[in-house]
């Protein structure tokens, strides 16, 4: 008898490209947990508009769902429909096999079918796809938890034997029970768990235990059930507090129990309101692992070359193909007959498949096509499908006749992943040696050997004992294989490693827990959101704003500063300037409605058309607005020992198509009329005075930033002023009226953070390169990368490492919750952030000493042992490094002053010049040494710029 559960499920929503940065269903939303305007890089800007629209969008199928087979009225009872359209009757479900008949076994039957002889064959199916064929039945067949086993003997054995792995089989008049990988069961209600210990987004169910913290830190819009000893002990749902406001759920998490937190748009929510009452029994399952997964999708074209091959991949306006002939919302397959690479643009994602049909590479675009293999290239929802199902080691079947691609994951896939990863790691290790890179060679070799050993162990277990007990071995294997890839990158000891964080804590203990995670990730700068939505995070004396009531009077800024000082981690006050509230007006707008920024249509807000949310700005043209903001920041600097003031939203809202851009209040229009004799309300892009109108509004923002930086340095000369900026500098000036390079040119910014939250590494590299070129040595450049846009771990690390090659001063991560919850911290802590790093401008003299001492360490650990430097060169180079350290005043108490820094610059330039002529160094060693020395020289030159010296 089948057990049929009442399982709540959500429809397959929009792709990440269409739903905002966090991939939330059917709503463009802010970065985790709170709202930002849709034009912000933090909203996960979509690049689908870079391509012409596709007339008809073909969405990927709903994962785990399959269209019902079309049957005629004479088909009764349980059947399966084969790929050729044949209907076969099923004699029994979860019952004893019958000779010459078909049987179906579901997970209700158990973990395995009973043993069988050579007269029987069994197929493992998941997602309606044949995932494996089992003909040796001494142990029976593993029944997947997300599928079933189809068993046939005697006369029907041949029919099943003729099916291939990857074929689709549909069930008719049968319900196959499939339980989620993680779920909570209350009676017959099964609630899928979206995540354990993470931010609760729209429609999600999250299970919290005490390792997350003391409370869930959730907002009011949901239900929370506290669970102890398998029983609900208390419930919180949407309710009003004593002041008439909705009270946050924010349940305490018991040390030995759980909190089940369900957002109000979850399909189970209404049913839970009835069932979740104290005293109700609950079953929690967190390890219902899917060892088999499969999905099939249609593709648009195979090796398209002409317009006829793929009209949507042709740019009719310019009469030429789009790159790779991949259009918007398309899925293209390429093999080596197409060329050496796919030739696609950066706006999608690709998967590389070798000649054996195994996935060997994931992410990026314009990927090289292996001989005998494929590149699968997807844009829009197809990129989402690839992200969901593609994994290293998975099997790919391309059916050109049906124009379909199938991706299949089995236990063997993880063994293949380990083999592929180990082989790649060994090649990469040898390449690192050839390049004399500073990576942990001995640890890497041990990890590679461990991967091989675990793979052998898993293989033996699979062949001797089957699936039972294999899951933990496979998890250990996967974790070790992943760490091997992560470790083989250099980790710099002098660089910026920043992270943006919105504080949600209400106690010092919660702040400590967050800072412990940040410290464990080897981050050295935290940008604590200090002025957001028009509120402060500290008790303020300013009467126009107020201390955000979400903190219940707790001074969270003071707490972060105290914990940062203990750990040697810089704490910067991140302030949002002209952005004053959303989706509701904050206190500044409420207290000073006349400060509201007005749009061309007379609106006081910017609206996100996909969600209806409204975002409010205050007017950059008003001197009293400047006065107010500077007063708030003066209070921060006077009352708190922050390491820096980090500027964000020093701009106008996005102009969109310019039919509703901003700055059309009477005061601003009057200023323009007085100067130019025209009302800007009558202007549009291309008009004679349009550039003057743009320049005037840009000037208001520039005026504020220049005045602010002057005031900041008067109060606290040593404090840093940094800025998060749009990296498309020409577009930023026209669209959001931000000219950040003006601030840099006026030497007002200590560190520029271009917000390069993009999927493709090439785009991030271009942003870093362009910023580096524009800034020169006026400031440091730290690239902003986005963990919140669901990058693969490999792509995330690649964006950081590739940017480092350019010589920039570091990386900053947007943002804390997605970084920790996505597991990116585990990846970086063993790899690119492996070494503890000091901030370059915390003490430039100490930073220089650290770089020079690292050079000496590399000589002894890498360059000489690997044959990259002879004895004469070793002695000479070591002496040069020692001399520069001595000129700094020694390694204990180095100092820089205007006179000394000139000598340091001359010495570094001399060493750089001489190294290039040195015959005792391998060319690759020269390249490594020059990279580090030029990094030291950059610190010198930025320091000179800040000292006001001209060299």
Summarize the structure in words.
The chain contains 23 helices and 38 strands. The protein has 951 residues and is α/β, with parallel strands linked by helices. The protein has five domains: 79-172, no CATH class; 293-409, no CATH class; 412-487; 496-829, Glycosidases (TIM Barrel); 844-947, no CATH class. A hairpin with a 5-residue loop joins strand 2 (79-81) and strand 3 (87-93). Helix 20 packs antiparallel against helix 21 and helix 21 runs antiparallel to helix 22. The radius of gyration is 30 Å and the shape is globular. The chain starts with 5 loop residues before the first strand and ends with a helix. The model is unreliable at 10-33 and 45-71 (pLDDT under 50). Keywords: Hydrolase, Signal. Residues 497-762 form the Glycosyl hydrolase-like domain. Pfam families: GHL10 (PF02638). One of its GO terms (molecular function) is hydrolase activity.
